[in-house]
Design brief:
Shape: globular
Radius of gyration: 23 Å
Low-confidence stretches: 494-508
Order of helices and strands: HHHHHHHHHHHHHHHHHHHH
Strand content: under 5%
Number of strands: 0
Distance between the termini: 30 Å
Oligomer: single chain
Helix content: over 70%
Length: 508
């Protein structure tokens, strides 16, 4: 099996490339269609996302874990393919029931949207439910088999297909289509194009269609994850409906409310979650690795990898927090030509730290068979999130979304960390380097702000001023890491393969 270090770097490189491609295309898209159209599309896709969550449920995640376990104990590809086939048929069946229900109860479903224009968009993208269900199943197989190159490549190819298709449908050749309809059609076409690529890779990598098996065990194992993801989808749909409605109550028009939601979710979130291209690779690799190590009883090795992953995420996300909190408004103006999006980025800059950490912790717990504990933490956090979305918009407006998301991810991270500690899957050695990196955020933010102010006084262009401040902030932050050495060997956070030599401690 490819070492964790190599796998992480491979996925990280592809993830960075994919996220950068997606990020710059979203900048173009936000300028091309505007905040209001983005908001309408985001509201429609949030309800579609709930349908996808129900159709796919926790099956892809459990399929990945099951595939890794079967591979670790030497099971043949034929048995694994049978499990994949069973999972695919189950997800397709659920997708068919949901699609039929959506058509049968069209009027009731339409009443759920706060803006009638979202209804048509939803039914245009509904056929993509089938392609999404199969897409997630095959990606779960690739992740479980450790086919990280194929796993990462499909995501990048999907992004390229999306760009080509969107540019085509937004071109002059389709002038009869509104911008929102063009986006919806492009979404559906992209989904089926990406599925075709993934199916080809599945067969090339040795996958086959076999007699379905293991469906009952997969469904049973995925039940807590399924319930949690469905609840998460319901919450996302609730936010997409309730938040714009609350903004309308505060005096906004429906178009203005959709634009505010579009700025937050369609613009600001794309930049705030960009650092997850660096940290998300760990969450992808850790699931099959942790499942395989636990199956072999290698708990010391597992603990070391989890410790290093947590420290790595702290170091990366704290740096971006320092930059976003000081330069967020500038980034919004430069990238999206929207001051409102920039203000949201600055306000919500701390949100990405618990979001990245929560993703890693939950994935690790799921790989160790602790889905019920993950679900319990989710329920507690979800109650807090819903309460804040209901109560805070009258005081904070759209910024209530940032507060709610930060609270949600902080609760799930802290509770998940406690569960991992009781499982003896991480050690307390992570706290010193994590705390030091958090403390370094304040002087880094100060230096970044001072550099930007000096550049402004020197009458530099906005692009030069922000680029200079960003560079100085990054150099200063890593300089603090090198001088104060909260991590003895910075290379250790890239998860050196323990099999190649004696492991080094993460922290002093």
């Amino acid at each position: 099996m490819r070492s964790l270090k190599q796998s992480t770097i491979l996925i990280m490189l592809f993830s960075i490339l994919t996220r950068l491609t997606s990020f710059f295309f979203k900048i173009f898209l936000s300028r091309k269609v505007g905040a209001e159209v983005l908001g309408l599309f985001q509201m429609a896709t949030s309800v579609f996302g709930l349908f996808c969550t129900i159709a796919c449920s926790g099956i892809p995640l459990m399929l990945s874990r099951k595939t890794a376990e079967l591979s670790a104990v030497g099971k043949k590809e034929k048995e694994i393919s049978g499990v994949v086939t069973g999972a695919a048929l189950f997800s397709l069946g659920i997708a068919f029931i949901l699609s039929f229900g959506a058509i049968l109860f069209r009027e009731k479903l339409a009443s759920a949207f706060s803006d009638d224009r979202c209804v048509k968009l939803f039914y245009i993208i509904l056929p993509a439910l089938f392609s999404t269900a199969l897409y997630q199943i095959f990606r779960g197989y690739l992740m479980g088999r450790g086919r990280y190159l194929a796993y990462s490549l499909t995501e990048f190819i999907e992004e390229i297909i999306k760009i080509v298709v969107c540019l085509t449908f937004l071109s002059n050749a389709f002038l009869l289509l509104s911008k929102s309809l063009a986006l919806a059609i492009a979404f559906t076409v992209t989904d089926y194009g990406a599925l075709l690529v993934l199916v080809i890779l599945y067969f090339v990598k040795g996958g086959r269609i076999r007699k379905p098996e293991g469906i009952k065990s997969l469904v049973k194992a995925s039940a807590p994850v399924t319930v949690m993801r469905i609840a998460s989808g319901l919450i996302a749909s609730f936010i997409a409906i309730a938040l714009p409605a609350a903004l309308v109550k505060q005096g906004m028009s429906s178009g203005e409310a959709a634009a505010e939601y579009g700025r937050a979710v369609g613009m600001a979130f794309s930049l705030l979650f960009a650092p997850l291209s660096l940290t998300g690779a760990l969450s992808v690799v850790i699931l099959p690795e942790a499942a395989a190590l636990a199956a072999k009883g290698k708990w010391n090795e597992l603990r070391t990898r989890v410790d290093n992953s947590i420290v790595f995420i702290f170091i990366i996300t704290v740096l971006f927090y320092s930059l976003f909190i000081t330069l967020g408004e500038t980034y919004g103006i430069l990238l999206f030509r929207d001051e409102g999006a920039g203000k949201f980025i600055s306000f919500a800059s701390g949100m990405m730290i618990p979001a990245a950490l929560s993703g890693l912790i939950n994935t690790t717990l799921n790989s160790l068979g602790e889905e019920k504990k993950v679900f319990f933490a989710f329920v507690v956090a979800a109650v807090a999130l819903i309460a804040e979305i209901l109560l805070l918009p009258r005081y904070l407006g759209v910024y209530a979304l940032a507060v709610g998301e930060c609270t949600f991810n902080t609760i799930t991270f802290v509770m998940g960390l406690c569960f991992l500690y009781r499982k003896n899957a991480f050690s307390a050695r992570i706290f010193r380097p994590a705390l030091c990196s958090m403390l370094f955020a304040f002087p880094t933010a100060l230096i970044t702000k001072l550099t930007f102010s000096l550049c402004e006084k020197a009458a530099f262009p906005l692009l030069i001023s922000s680029a200079s401040a960003t560079l100085i902030g990054c150099l200063f932050y890593f300089g603090l890491l090198i001088v104060f050495k909260p991590v003895r060997d910075l290379r250790a956070i890239l998860l050196r393969n323990p099999a190649r030599g004696k492991r080094k401690r993460v922290a002093e």
